[in-house]
Hints:
The complex is a heterodimer. Chain A is mainly beta. Chain A is built from five helices and 41 strands. In chain A, helix 3 (about 55-65) links the parallel strand 1 and strand 2 (about 70). In chain A, the strands form four sheets. In chain A, strands 1-2-5-8-11-14-17-20-23-26-29-32-35-38 form a 14-stranded parallel β-sheet, with no helix packed on it. In chain B, about 15% of the residues lie in helices and about 40% in strands. The longest helix of chain B is centred in the first third of the chain and has 24 residues, at about 1-25. The termini of chain B are far apart. At the A-B interface, strand 13, strand 25 and helix 5 of A face helix 1, strand 16, strand 25 and strand 29 of B.
Amino acid sequence: MRSRRLRRVVRAGGSLRAAALACLVLVAPGAGSSDVVPRPAPARPDACRSVLAATALPPLLARASAGDAFCLDPGDYEGPLEIPAGVEVWGPRDAILHSTGKGTTVRLEGDGAALSGVTVDGSGGRFDLLDAAVRVEGEDIRVEGIRVQGASFGILAEKSRSVQILGNEVIGQPERTLGLRGDGIRLWETYDSRIEDNRVHDSRDVVVWYSSRNQIRGNEITGGRYGTHLMYSHGNAIEDNRFIGNVTGIFLMYSRDIRVERNLLAKSGGAAGIGLGVKESGNLQIRDNDFVHDTVGIYSDTSPLDEADTNVYRGNELRLCDTAVIFHGRASRNVFRDNTLRDNQVAVAVEGRGDALDSDWRGNDFDDYAGYDLDGDGFGDVPFELRSLSSALVAETPALAFYRGTAALGFAEAIGRIVPLFTPQEILVDPQPRVRRPARDARPLESSDAG
Amino acid sequence: MDRIVSRSIYRVAALGIAIAVSVGCGQQSADLAPGNGSAGGEAIAELMQARNLSEADVRAALKTYTPTGRHDEFYMFASGGHSGQAVVIGMPSMRILKYIAVFTPEPWQGYGYGDQSNAVLAQGDRDGRELRWADTHHPALSETAGDYDGETLFLNDKSGARIAVISLKDFATKQIVVNPLIVSDHGGAFVTPDTEYVIEGSQYPAPLGGGYAPIEEYDEKYRGAATFWKFDRAAGRIVPEESWAIELPPYMQDLSDAGKLASEGWAFINSFNTERATGGNMEGNPPLESGASQNDMDYLHIINWRKAEELVKAGKTVEIAGMRVLPMQTAIDEGVLFFVGEPKSPHGVDVTPDGTELVISGKLDTHATVYSFAKMKALIDAKQFAGTDPYGIPILPFEESIRGQVEIGLGPLHTQFDDKGNAYTSVFIESKVARWSLKDLQVIEKIPVHYNIGHLATPHGDTVSPKGGYVMAMNKWAIDRFAGVGPLLPQNFQLIDTSGEAMQLLYDMPIPLGEPHYAQIISADKINAEEIYSPAGIDPVTGERDPHAVVGGEERIERGADGVHVYMTAVRSHFKPDTIRVKEGDTVHLHLTNAEQAKDATHGFTIDTYNISVSLEPGKHSNVTFVADRAGVFPMYCTEFCSALHLEMAGYLLVEPKDGAGGADAAVGDGGAARTAAR
Lengths: 451, 679
């Protein structure tokens, strides 16, 4: 269905570049704006105690003290385990910690505990008890380079600080429908932590709730529901991640002071298909992200909420989306600089019969800009006004989107510009639109940024 | 899809033709455009242009405009939120028909300004404290065989754990009952299919029956409860002594619904905070909202109330604060109480019209989960449980209990139904209404609403016989939908037409009274309201003729041991007697009968400065008791513009000083004293 719609769009007037970018996403999900470099496997700790396969680990761990490290040989081990404070369990990927089918498989609930390298296979199935492969609670706890498979929840961190969740692979349960899977990674009441270079496939959500000042960087999250869902979580950075094929890439809710930079948000589809959703959140810096083939690229609902806040969208590229940007309600105190909006069925829509005239657009690149650049400075000499009759028709009758770019809607569009009776509602004005796509590092309008 | 597309082609073609015609014909174009007409010299197209209206706007106007004298197809009964009232709205015109005074004094209706209505309000007092406001959430219309019957309306008060009974004969409050077990409710009012019971579920746990227990003993001593208030249909009253409750764990019980048809005899109550978080954010604990949303699932409470009723009759209860309570352990042992997991901060639980399934949505979920009652019942019968909660209540396995999940969108809350097999779910985080197929579990369409929708309502939408055609989105925020009125904004009801292939927003209605939460919509032909109280002299609370009712010719003033009794009639355009002479310090008993039997011939009655406001609808009788504690001259008059001689419908209360001195200066208090001093 996706590819069929894509073909329609391309045939209907999309550029070759759009097709190429779409192919990049569709054919090679590992490619994009920010390549993920696999993190090296965690090194075997110095002076660790080797453990033979099938050894019962709980008695060893019960006697361990801070500073001890256990290096597992390849093989199978029975859970559940509780790794004490200051103790590390290391192993290669083929050292497998098995769930008994009940409860959480590995618990790291003392400061400084670490789990690295191994595979954790399974967990209990009780969602009401949050049965997980790995549960973390404490400070300076590290979970690095492990693989999680067959578990209800992947890696949970609760009431923790300075946790490192690095380079892990969480394989969800693709055979189950989205609502019946657990979260791949979940932070709850967790602060000052690093979630980096993980790959999360086919789980439900990556959740960051009531968790502030965390770095979510370099992860690849695919085939889930919420790629990353922030709620009441402030001062977080979400950078260089790849969100592909999730229902919603990133959703920011009731959160402030968030940086979202250099992420790829692609193929967000379904009933709530959104690349980046923002609800009642403010002081956001949304920069240099690629939104490709999302049902909705950016969805801004009553954001920013606080009168003193501004949200800045700069250098983002939105392509092949059904709608690139939707404002639900007011659009004020949103700044759009140097963004590219090309090959989308609808560029910008405002739900509830409003407009985005009080948002601040400058230096953006629109594919349907029909102006000129006589002085050759790269900016059009007349403002770009989004005042599209066909957009109005499409907004009222979504099925007409099928004809976007065709002669029928083009005729309506052209006539609509001539006959005042059909003057459609003005949506936005960019007084200084670009005539070509801006380079990522070109920011000539920096001084006028409100953010 | 093909049909939509082909229609769209025609539409574009028609548009092109219309444009071509308009270009060719110049000024005539407006009159030739589709839908044009003229009235009062203004073509519709000109009006549209002048007011910047689209075709969709005009269609919406045509679907809601109701000419003078024509009545609405539906009544909507909405809670009045913090106002403690209920709001009656005609639909689709969205004309407000009445605010029903329920928990709060309301002077126009004389509610809380006379003996009878004061007595109703006093029924709602608790702990020796007058409660004169309420946080009303969920109105419930009485049902017969699972459908609204238009006889009675019930309304809860979350803040005081109370239920009110309102008769739809005269749209007036008849009774308030206080729940002695709990101090806050939420899952109420909900009625069983024949209104045998009005269900009231608690919200915030506390020791049952009141009293203190340290928050550190929350797990052991705090409890919830589901109360089943017995309703006497003939009397139109709740019967507290025949009512009973079930003890529940200290989770925060939330919304409820009663089973019907296939699931009749069962009740379902959502919960959150099964984590049993108690807050303490200045005592080193996470805030309550954080602690309460830590777990991925909470528990739907499944209660076999028919069986519980038998146990109550068999005496297996304990008495707490005068209420018979089935202990939790008994409910477990006897197979009355079960749980099943429900995802991500659940809120609404809504039984499908045929009673076979339940739709539950989580505020932080994107799916609605459809539970199969037959599957759950089979699991219960087979005693097939996934485990128990910390209190030993059996938990059904989640996946074995459901038919499936619908991917609705971000933050689904509540679900109602239509007559075509569709369900409508409010989507809070996205601010949308989703229409989806109950059969296929697929979303058909979503429509944006503004903003932050809570409940929604469709005509008869939670009964065995939903009507369809409309959905009312009850939005928590209005933000920019209406002209500014300062920082406190109204809520926003949005009426949506669901009769066509695409849902269409028809009307925005501000509700500037309180947060209404929930509403029920009933066909107007189900309401059989009385037009007058007949015969004259009816006490509206009892529905009987008041012992002090006055008939014309028998008006009089009598002095007795308990004070002065004034037997007065009101008829256009006089009170009789129109002069009342009493002594300072007398207790005055006014017995007021509106002797008229004509529709809408309502009088009001007040005595200046005495804080008296009586509404005297045709045939109504009110008693008012007060102490004439201030000597002076006090005009009394009719507060309703009842006739051309309305202003003349007046008289005097003459309060003679008890010591024969003082007079006017003494009667006006400080102002008089100042004036006296100035002489």
